[in-house]
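Troubleshooting log. The previous structure file for this entry was overwritten by mistake, so regenerating from the original sequence record. Sequence copied from the archived sheet and checked twice against the printout by T.R.
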Amino acid sequence: MKNNILYYSIGALLYCPAYKKSIADAVIREEFGTKYSLALCLEDTVNDRFVEEAEQTLIDSIRQIHDAQKTRQFYLPKIFIRVRCPQQITKLTAALGGSAEIIMGYNIPKFSTANADEYIQAIIKVNESANKKIYMMPIYESLCLTDIRKRADILYRLKDSLAAVEELVLNIRVGGNDLCHLFGFRRHADESIHRIKPIADIFSDIITVYGMDYVISGPVWEYYSGENWEKGLLAEIQDDKLCGFTGKTVIHPHQIPVVNSAYQVLRSDFEDARAILDWNQDSNAYVSGNLAKERMDEFKTHANWARQTLLLAEAFGVKQS
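Regenerated output below.
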């Protein structure tokens, strides 16, 4: 289990096509607020015929943000690049030069047994020459995961592959829309992806295999306006949290404060978590009513929950109700 605040701090990860020339100015002007992460996408959001142009725009954007930091203060999000292939990792890291120091890492789309070793070796290679850690976030969204005869074997093989770079895996991420696409599904603003049984089953297996060792982020929510979009997002986040996900991929700035608020820890949970971890180890009892005398707290049963709760409180804050 990850017991470091860094792994819980990705929060709302805002996806932006890498070809957007306005992104650097938006970051510098803090148009997206001061509590989010950013993924610049070179994959599905970019036409195959315009990849090189998008790469150059991305490089220019990163350099602009990097240079601006030398002369003014502004919130710098954790910045990730969603690549198309392993070669882009080494290519872009080299092309960015000194400005690569503001890159947190790379998002790995359609992570599978067919490409895992190449991606992992690319991450290892750039870390050998970097003056800071460069992380990876593999995305589980490939067709192979729909084969229930092989899914468990695939997930465990991928987990074994990641063991060599485990500390460099910030999050395991899931491609909710990509998986829905394979079946032809699309949820409405008042429907949670966790109600789509084939997709929920894949999520459940990912949580089962990875949930005790990695932080796993929730799927993208594509609604940002119109009727019920915010209510629907909050409802799906409740399902995400209950099923073991932390954080969420977002596609519009409107969604960022909703995610941040939803992941704030209830004051009652925060107080219970502290009490559990401060348990008197010399006591003859490892169970008691909680501080509010509303539920049972048990040290041996709830300690992992308590550690995660305090990390979430550090990352997102605490709210009364």
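The longest strand covers residues 12-17. Archived copy saved in two places this time.
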